[in-house]
User: Fold these one by one.
Assistant:
Number 1:
Amino acid sequence: MDVVVIGGHGKIARRLLGLLIERGHGARGVIRNPDHAADLESLGAEPFICDLETEELTDAVAGADAVVFAAGAGPGSEPERKKTVDLGGAVKLIEACRANEISRYVMVSSINADHPGDWPEQMRPYFEAKAAADAELEKAGLAHTIVRPGSLSDEPGTAMVSAAPDSPYGVIPRDDVALVLAEVLEADNTIGKSFDVVSGETPVKAAVAAR
Ligand SMILES: NC(=O)c1ccc[n+]([C@@H]2O[C@H](COP(=O)([O-])OP(=O)(O)OC[C@H]3O[C@@H](n4cnc5c(N)ncnc54)[C@H](OP(=O)(O)O)[C@@H]3O)[C@@H](O)[C@H]2O)c1
């Protein structure tokens, strides 16, 4: 399978690109900074330069079997960038999938994106953007999966998670999020599903197979 990961130099994305290569898939990472290309090449992934705020993603995803939206404006960014990256970029990716007749779209969302009542006020622009992006994807008619990780850590992964439509708040290493995404791409049972993922007691493969 040829997979394109948007936000290709992100911490989750680089882990995912490495896993995809290990599993024998084609892996392309879409990055905006040409200086990041060598890092992707060292993983065996193909870099594609495109700033999703100022350019279309149509050419970036050409030839792909599946796409993953793993970009994000980041915690220090202004509310406007949540709209242009977290929402606008995700919507551009839907349009690029349509233009290229790609149906499989996996979204890196966030735990609580589906719980507006739990949003702290200062995080509201971020969660509003993530919730709107998820809603756009759900109604796009693509073969989507929405993965909502808990709070991300850089601790080593354990490959043990809890994946459920509605989890209590929790933490999860980025290693394990990437592993879940790699499994989801290979698991058609996850098409049309949305679920939270946090550290837990079930091996990733089994947790994904049970969705
Ligand atoms: N932090 C949490 O606890 C948490 C919890 C749940 C979900 N999430 C979600 O998980 C996502 C991935 O996490 P992460 O740690 O892998 O994030 P990350 O390391 O910040 O990666 C995000 C990537 O998006 C890229 N990007 C930003 N603006 C772009 C643009 N205009 N064009 C192209 N690429 C652009 C960034 O590129 P540059 O390197 O060029 O800036 C960066 O590489 C987050 O963005 C967030 O939505 C986060």
Note: The radius of gyration is 16 Å.
Number 2:
Amino acid sequence: MIQIQEVTKQFKDKKKYVTALKHVSFEVKQGEVLGLLGENGAGKTTLLRTIATLLDPTTGQVLVGGFDTVKQSAEIQKKIGVLFGSETGLYDRFTARENLEYFAMLYGLGKHETKVRIDELSKMFGMRDYMDRKVGSFSKGMRQKVAIARTLVHNPQIILFDEPTTGLDITSSNVFRQLVHQLKREGKTIIFSSHIVEEVSMLCDAVAMIHKGELVYHGSLEQLYEQESSRDLNFIFMSKLVRGEDDYAI
Ligand SMILES: Nc1ncnc2c1ncn2[C@@H]1O[C@H](COP(=O)(O)OP(=O)(O)OP(=O)(O)O)[C@@H](O)[C@H]1O
Ligand SMILES: [Mg+2]
């Protein structure tokens, strides 16, 4: 379970304060797939980085599996897998296999376990042909697949993906979608941000919409469809943003 409680995050940018998140509160249940929707600059990456213990909230608290992201970050880091957009965190001079082996070693996986896991992931992502080539020469999509595999190498219970399908072709995006279904069947908790509304409607149980740092909706997709008398998530998203502006314009 992930509990986000009254989280506000301010950045100091050249003596000016930018408030990226304003009193955001919601929970993600164990085994739930939650989609994070919001315009550019809404605060999605900031929220994911906060959950991943990479940023401390200015005020408020985030608990991951009962552990506090500020005071107990080491406990949380063992349980989570994170992938942030274009920051693949891969080493260009290593092959795909060496990259995955390196991250498996950091997480303390044994030799046999590492081999089995890497074989599994390379098969799943159709990467077997290029596992022994250096990542430096890979296309964007190939790199992204290795990066997703890296995120999963230690079999984390909680997975955070920031725009995971950006740069992937149709086939690889579909592989990612199948992967989310499989991870869900395994009972993993997943939060991912996306600008692709269809992806969120296809994969998620719940959705959180952020607009200019504020949470304008959180709940199950089914509840939302019922409440709005529509199953057009794109339309609902846009109307939530407009209503958000009205609510906060005072
Ligand atoms: N390190 C930082 N220093 C100053 N401001 C920051 C920093 N990181 C984020 N911000 C600001 O916080 C706000 C939210 O940014 P964030 O990256 O979380 O948005 P996002 O929803 O992920 O957007 P996108 O869809 O474009 O990725 C923006 O105004 C951004 O400029
Ligand atoms: Mg972002």
Note: The mean pLDDT is 92.
